[in-house]
Amino acid sequence: MCEYSLSQITPSDRRSRRLMDALLEKEGIERDKNLDYSVGLFDEDYNLAATGSCFKNTLRCMAVDSSHQGEGLLNRVVSHLMDYQFERGNRDLFLYAKCDSAKFFRDLGFYEIARVEGKVVFMENRRTGFSDYLDSLTRPEAAGERVASVVMNANPFTLGHQYLLERAAAENDVVHVFVVSEEASLIPFSVRYDLVQRGSAHLNNLIYHPTGSYIISNATFPSYFLKDADVVIESHARLDIQVFKKIAAALGIRRRYVGEEPFSQVTGIYNRIMKKELDAEGIFCEIIPRRTDGSTAISASKVRLAIQEDRLDDIRNVVPASTYEYFASPEAEPVIARIRAAGDVIHY
User: Fold this and answer.
1) pLDDT tens, per residue, the chain with 348 residues
2) How far apart are CA 201 and CA 194, in angstroms?
3) DSSP alpha helices (H): ranges in 88-158?
4) 84 Cβ partners below 8 Å, 6+ apart?
5) Is residue 41 within 8 Å of residue 21, measured between CB atoms?
6) What is the rounded distance in angstroms from the CA atom of residue 163 to the CA atom of residue 200?
7) Which DSSP state fits 292?
8) Each residue of 237-257: b (16+ CB within 10 Å) or e?
């Protein structure tokens, strides 16, 4: 009986990283760029038999060498990763699995949230996690017949975001505004959420929600077992839409507003798929032309670039007063320092 030892694979351990990459490739997986903890199960000759990783509160890049399958090694890896997550305070865990692997993870106590057939299944470790999130969403006392939604990152909140909310608010009785709460942006969620609320305070029919881990961001979506870039984008969009349909059903949402995307190919593809999928479901997807600054479409990326280049006055005419006041205040200094220290602040 082979004895295995479990060890952390650190970024500086080049040999183990090469072994991990080779094992993942052998099993049809590419190492995800978003990993913050990795482990391996090694045999007596220090050959890698199984591996798994974490990124924030997700488990990912899990694989067992085909010559060692049937020995319960993946179970051991997953159990260790879950213990590690619990130790660092993450109780609500999520993972993305291939459809043919979902049963294995169900047997380990994970529950399906949504799936794209033949591509990916989104799962969590709490049986009532998603239903509890749906129950936590604020409902108005009288919603009216026209209920809409907007999902935004608002990194930061611009006049373009404000225009989108104004359009939705004018055409509907209630608008549910979901602000992406995944901490993958240069501007923290607490700041973005506050700026959205302050910048739309003149609209009295908005209800604000954090997305939690359920409306999925690009940073956490697993591209590691979807090789083709367009397949990654399309699968991400379809999985996000499957989750959103359940949120829409819980809140009676019949319309979703999104901004037209002239700059990002990724978001452009996403919007096209979203419109097709939601329209077919009877949830009308309204793609609104971007507000301009007189010549070009207003972009949060361009605002971040101006902040990075110490051109704060340049953002005054493309963001609400509340956003400008925040970035001109001492409170914003740590965020501005983070933006200035970043590499590329333009997202495509």
Assistant:
1) 578 999 999 999 999 999 999 998 888 777 877 789 999 999 988 999 999 999 889 898 888 998 888 889 999 999 999 999 999 999 999 988 878 888 989 999 999 999 888 878 899 999 999 999 999 999 987 767 899 999 999 999 999 999 999 999 999 999 999 999 887 778 999 999 999 999 999 999 999 999 988 886 554 555 534 445 666 677 778 888 899 999 999 999 999 999 887 666 677 778 888 899 999 999 999 999 989 888 888 989 899 999 999 999 999 999 999 999 999 999 999 999 999 998 777 764
2) 10
3) 102-107, 129-136
4) 37, 39, 54
5) no
6) 9
7) B
8) bbbbbbbbbbbbeebebbbbb
Give the whole-angstrom CA distance, residue 178 versus residue 208.
6
Token pair 């391996």 in the structure block, residue: 40
Residue pair 23/51 in contact by the 8 Å Cβ criterion: yes
DSSP H helices, 139-264, are 159-171, 189-199, 229-251
Token readout for 3 is 């004895």
Structure tokens at 210: 């954090």
CB atoms within 10 A of CB 269: 17
60: alpha, beta or left, given left = phi > 0 and alpha = psi -120 to 50?
Answer: beta
Q: Which of 138, 100, 150, 137 is nearest to 121 (CA)?
A: 100
Structure tokens at 206: 């908005």
* Buried/exposed code over 70-106 (b: 16+ C-beta within 10 A; e: otherwise): ebebbebbbeebbebbeeeebeebbbbbbeebbeebe
Phi first, then psi: give them for residue 181, nearest 5 degrees: -100, 0
Structure-block tokens of residue 269:
């593809």
Task: Beginning with the edge strand found earlier in the chain, give each strand of the sheet holding 111-116 in spatial order.
Answer: 5-8, 37-42, 48-55, 58-64, 94-97, 120-124, 111-116
Characterize the bridge pairing of strands 48-55 and 37-42. antiparallel
Six-digit token pair at 348?
């495509």
CA-based Rg of the chain, rounded to a whole angstrom? 22
- As a residue count, the chain comes to 348
